[in-house]
C-alpha cells in the first residue's frame, strides 16, 4: 500500500476494510492501493484489482459524515474520478456507517459503497459483491459511533451481474 504521511485514522481503517473485503473474494486479486494526499483533489483511495484476468480500478472517497444530504457532491467527484481512468473503474464511497437511505443513493448513482459496520456493494464487471451487516443501530448514537454486530454478517458474491441472472453463493461469518 502506498500511503502518505497525512493519512487519517479513518482513511487507514477504510483501506483495511477495503483490503479485507476484496480478500474475501477468490476471483479478485488486489494489485495495489494508493492513498492520495487530501490536497491533490484526486480520489482519496485508488485500488487496482484483477478480476478474472481483467484489470479494474476502484476510485474511493472516505466520508466521515455520510448523511444522505452530504453525499451528492461526493458521488459526483467519485464519478468524475472514475471517468478519468484508462480502464474500467467503479466509484466507491467508504464511511463509518451508511444508512439505508445513503446506500440507496449510492445504488441509484451507480456507485459502490463500503461501511465499517460490514455493509458493502461493489460491481466489478465480472464480479458483484454484496454484503449486509446485521448490525442493530441505536437511534440515539451519532453516525460516528460504531455499533457491535447483533449477529453474523451475511455476504453474497455473484459471478457476473445480478441483472444477468448470475448465480451466487452466500457465506456467513465475520
Protein described:
There is one protein chain. By secondary structure, this protein is of the alpha+beta class. The protein has one domain (9-172): 3-Layer(aba) Sandwich (Trna Endonuclease, Chain: A, domain 1), CATH 3.40.1350. Helices cover 21% and strands 32% of the residues. It contains three helices and nine strands. It has a nine-stranded mixed sheet, with helices on both faces. Mean pLDDT is 77; it is low at 138-174.
Keywords, separated by commas or semicolons:
Trna Endonuclease, Chain: A, domain 1; 9-stranded mixed β-sheet; single chain; alpha+beta; disordered C terminus; 174 residues; 3 helices
List strands and helices in order, with pairings.
Elements: H1 9-23, E1 28-35, E2 45-51, E3 54-62, H2 72-83, E4 89-95, H3 100-108, E5 112-115, E6 120-123, E7 127-132, E8 154-159, E9 168-172
Parallel strand pairs: 3-4, 4-5
Antiparallel strand pairs: 1-2, 2-3, 5-6, 6-7, 7-8, 8-9
